[in-house]
C-alpha cells in the first residue's frame, strides 16, 4: 500500500501536552491542505513521531509542500511481513530496476522486537540488490531506506524537504505590513513559519495604480496560509501622502511615512486581535532602517514589532522570495518609494518623530476612523 510519511522534528521535541496539541493542529492543517488541492486523503494516522497519509500520494505530495511544521516527507510503500525474507523479496521487486547500473546504499531503522537487527536487513537486501547494481555506502547514487515498525515495513528512496517550523495557528496572529516589494512578503512568510497566522495591511498612496499587483503578491503569500484564511486590508493612504508632501520637511518624509504605517498598523492590529506587527525591514538596507531610525520609529509604540529580516542581506531575501514564490509578483509592483526619498535623514531624533506625529495626528486619526467604521 502506498503511504506518505510526514516528519516534523521540531514538534517531536516538545513536552507531551504541547506535542499532542501541535500534532493535532498539524494534522488539521494537512486535511485542510488536501481539501484545498482536491486530493483524496483516505486516512491520516499518527505513528511514533510520524504522520502517515493514505490516499492519492502524488497529490498529497503537493498539498503538503506548503504546510508549516513539516520537516520532510517520503512517498513510501508499506507492507506487513512475517519474516526478514519477505522484506528482502519485496525490496528486490521494488528496487531492482532502480539500482541497475547504479551505486546504492541500503539504510534500515527499526522500532519494536524482531529476531533480526537493522544491519542484518541492510546486508541481506544489499546482497540481493548487488545482483543488479553496486553497493557504495559512502556516496551512493541512490539511498534506499527501510523503516520497520513492529510487523510493518516502509520502503522509500526519496526524502523531500518541507518548510519546517511550526504548524500555522500554533502561535496566534500577527498583522504584516505589506508594500508588495520583495522584502515584506518574505518577512510575513518567516513569521508564518513560526506558527503565526497573518493578516495583511497595505497602505495605498498611489491610488488604483499598483493595487492589483500588490493584491497578487498577497495572493501568492496567502497560498502558504493553509489552516487560516488571511484577510487583506488595503487602506487608502492618499491623504497621508498629501499631508507628508506639504507639511513635512523633505529629509523626513520617508520616515514620516513609516511612522504613519506603524501607527495605523498598531491600531489595526488591536482591532483584529493581532499580537504583533511584522515589517520587512532589514538593518541599514535604506536610510529609514538605520539603528537610530528604527529606534525612533518605535517611540511610544505599545505593540510588538517583529522584523524577521533584520539580519538578512538583500541577496538572501531575494533567494527566499524566489523559493516561496513571491519574487515574480513583487518585481511587477510599481516602485513609488522615490516619492519621499530626498536625501533622507539617517539620524532621526525623538523630537523629529514628535514633530511628525503632530503634523500627522489629524490625518492618521481620520484614516483610523475610516477603518473602524468599515469594520464595525
Ligand atoms: P519591501 O521592504 O517590502 O521590499 P520597500 O523596500 O519598498 O518594500 P521599505 O521602504 O523598505 O519598503 O519599507 C519598510 C517596510 O515597511 C516594508 O518592508 C513593509 O513592511 C512596510 N511598508 C512599506 N511600504 C508599505 C506600504 N505602502 N503599506 C504597508 N506597509 C509598507
Ligand atoms: Mg525594504
From TrEMBL:
<dbReference type="GO" id="GO:0004810">
    <property type="term" value="F:CCA tRNA nucleotidyltransferase activity"/>
</dbReference>
<feature type="binding site">
    <location>
        <position position="280"/>
    </location>
    <ligand>
        <name>ATP</name>
    </ligand>
</feature>
<feature type="binding site">
    <location>
        <begin position="177"/>
        <end position="178"/>
    </location>
    <ligand>
        <name>ATP</name>
    </ligand>
</feature>
<dbReference type="GO" id="GO:0009229">
    <property type="term" value="P:thiamine diphosphate biosynthetic process"/>
</dbReference>
<dbReference type="InterPro" id="IPR020536">
    <property type="entry name" value="ThiI_AANH"/>
</dbReference>
<feature type="binding site">
    <location>
        <position position="289"/>
    </location>
    <ligand>
        <name>ATP</name>
    </ligand>
</feature>
<comment type="similarity">
    <text>Belongs to the ThiI family.</text>
</comment>
<dbReference type="InterPro" id="IPR014729">
    <property type="entry name" value="Rossmann-like_a/b/a_fold"/>
</dbReference>
<keyword id="KW-0808">Transferase</keyword>
<keyword id="KW-0547">Nucleotide-binding</keyword>
<dbReference type="GO" id="GO:0002937">
    <property type="term" value="P:tRNA 4-thiouridine biosynthesis"/>
</dbReference>
<keyword id="KW-0820">tRNA-binding</keyword>
<dbReference type="InterPro" id="IPR050102">
    <property type="entry name" value="tRNA_sulfurtransferase_ThiI"/>
</dbReference>
<dbReference type="Pfam" id="PF02926">
    <property type="entry name" value="THUMP"/>
</dbReference>
<keyword id="KW-0784">Thiamine biosynthesis</keyword>
<dbReference type="Pfam" id="PF02568">
    <property type="entry name" value="ThiI"/>
</dbReference>
<keyword id="KW-0694">RNA-binding</keyword>
<keyword id="KW-0963">Cytoplasm</keyword>
<comment type="pathway">
    <text>Cofactor biosynthesis; thiamine diphosphate biosynthesis.</text>
</comment>
<feature type="binding site">
    <location>
        <position position="258"/>
    </location>
    <ligand>
        <name>ATP</name>
    </ligand>
</feature>
<keyword id="KW-0067">ATP-binding</keyword>
<dbReference type="InterPro" id="IPR049962">
    <property type="entry name" value="THUMP_ThiI"/>
</dbReference>
<dbReference type="GO" id="GO:0005524">
    <property type="term" value="F:ATP binding"/>
</dbReference>
<dbReference type="InterPro" id="IPR054173">
    <property type="entry name" value="ThiI_fer"/>
</dbReference>
<dbReference type="GO" id="GO:0009228">
    <property type="term" value="P:thiamine biosynthetic process"/>
</dbReference>
<dbReference type="InterPro" id="IPR004114">
    <property type="entry name" value="THUMP_dom"/>
</dbReference>
<dbReference type="Pfam" id="PF22025">
    <property type="entry name" value="ThiI_fer"/>
</dbReference>
<dbReference type="InterPro" id="IPR049961">
    <property type="entry name" value="ThiI_N"/>
</dbReference>
<dbReference type="GO" id="GO:0005829">
    <property type="term" value="C:cytosol"/>
</dbReference>
<dbReference type="GO" id="GO:0052837">
    <property type="term" value="P:thiazole biosynthetic process"/>
</dbReference>
<dbReference type="GO" id="GO:0000049">
    <property type="term" value="F:tRNA binding"/>
</dbReference>
<feature type="domain" description="THUMP">
    <location>
        <begin position="58"/>
        <end position="159"/>
    </location>
</feature>
<dbReference type="GO" id="GO:0140741">
    <property type="term" value="F:tRNA-uracil-4 sulfurtransferase activity"/>
</dbReference>
<comment type="function">
    <text>Catalyzes the ATP-dependent transfer of a sulfur to tRNA to produce 4-thiouridine in position 8 of tRNAs, which functions as a near-UV photosensor. Also catalyzes the transfer of sulfur to the sulfur carrier protein ThiS, forming ThiS-thiocarboxylate. This is a step in the synthesis of thiazole, in the thiamine biosynthesis pathway. The sulfur is donated as persulfide by IscS.</text>
</comment>
<dbReference type="InterPro" id="IPR003720">
    <property type="entry name" value="tRNA_STrfase"/>
</dbReference>
<protein>
    <recommendedName>
        <fullName>Probable tRNA sulfurtransferase</fullName>
        <ecNumber>2.8.1.4</ecNumber>
    </recommendedName>
</protein>
Amino acid at each position: 500500500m502506498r503511504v506518505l510519511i510526514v516528519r516534523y522534528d521540531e514538534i517531536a521535541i516538545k513536552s507531551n501536552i504541547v506535542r499532542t496539541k501541535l500534532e493535532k493542529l498539524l494534522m488539521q492543517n494537512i486535511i485542510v491542505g488536501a481539501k484545498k488541492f482536491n486530493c483524496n486523503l483516505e486516512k491520516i494516522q499518527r505513528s511514533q513521531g510520524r504522520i502517515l497519509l493514505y490516499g492519492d500520494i502524488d497529490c498529497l505530495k503537493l498539498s503538503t509542500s506548503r504546510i508549516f511544521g513539516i520537516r520532510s516527507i517520503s512517498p513510501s510503500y508499506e507492507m506487513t511481513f512475517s519474516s526478514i525474507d519477505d522484506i528482502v523479496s519485496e525490496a528486490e521487486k521494488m528496487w531492482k530496476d532502480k539500482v541497475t547500473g547504479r551505486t546504492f546504499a541500503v539504510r534500515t531503522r527499526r522500532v519494536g522486537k524482531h529476531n533480526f537487527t537493522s544491519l542484518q536487513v541492510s546486508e541481506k537486501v544489499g546482497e540481493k540488490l548487488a545482483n543488479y547494481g553496486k553497493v557504495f555506502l559512502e556516496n551512493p547514487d541512490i539511498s534506499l531506506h527501510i523503516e520497520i515498525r513492529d510487523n510493518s515495513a516502509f520502503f522509500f528512496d526519496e526524502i523531500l524537504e518541507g518548510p519546517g517550523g511550526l504548524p500555522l495557528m500554533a502561535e496566534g496572529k500577527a498583522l504584516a505590513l505589506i508594500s508588495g516589494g520583495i522584502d515584506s512578503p518574505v518577512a510575513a512568510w518567516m513569521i508564518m513559519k513560526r506558527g503565526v497566522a497573518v493578516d495583511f495591511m497595505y497602505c495605498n498612496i498611489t491610488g488604483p495604480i499598483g493595487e492589483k499587483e500588490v493584491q497578487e503578491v498577497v495572493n501568492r503569500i496567502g497560498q502558504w496560509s493553509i489552516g487560516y484564511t488571511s484577510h487583506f486590508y488595503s487602506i487608502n493612504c492618499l491623504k497621508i501622502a498629501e499631508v507628508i508632501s506639504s507639511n513635512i520637511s523633505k529629509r523626513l518624509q520617508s520616515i514620516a511615512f513609516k511612522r504613519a504605517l506603524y501607527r495605523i498598523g498598531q491600531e489595526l492590529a488591536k482591532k483584529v486581535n493581532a499580537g504583533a506587527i511584522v515589517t520587512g525591514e532589514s538593518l541599514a538596507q535604506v536610510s529609514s532602517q538605520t539603528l537610530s531610525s528604527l529606534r525612533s520609529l518605535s517611540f511610544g509604540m505599545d505593540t510588538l514589532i517583529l522584523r524577521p529580516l533584520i539580519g538578512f542581506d538583500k541577496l538572501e531575501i531575494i533567494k527566499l522570495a524566489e523559493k516561496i514564490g513571491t519574487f515574480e509578483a513583487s518585481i511587477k509592483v510599481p516602485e513609488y518609494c522615490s516619492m519621499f526619498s530626498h536625501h533622507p535623514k539617517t539620524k532621526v531624533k525623538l523630537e523629529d518623530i514628535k514633530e511628525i506625529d503632530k503634523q500627522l495626528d489629524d490625518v492618521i486619526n481620520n484614516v483610523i476612523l475610516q477603518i473602524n467604521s468599515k469594520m464595525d
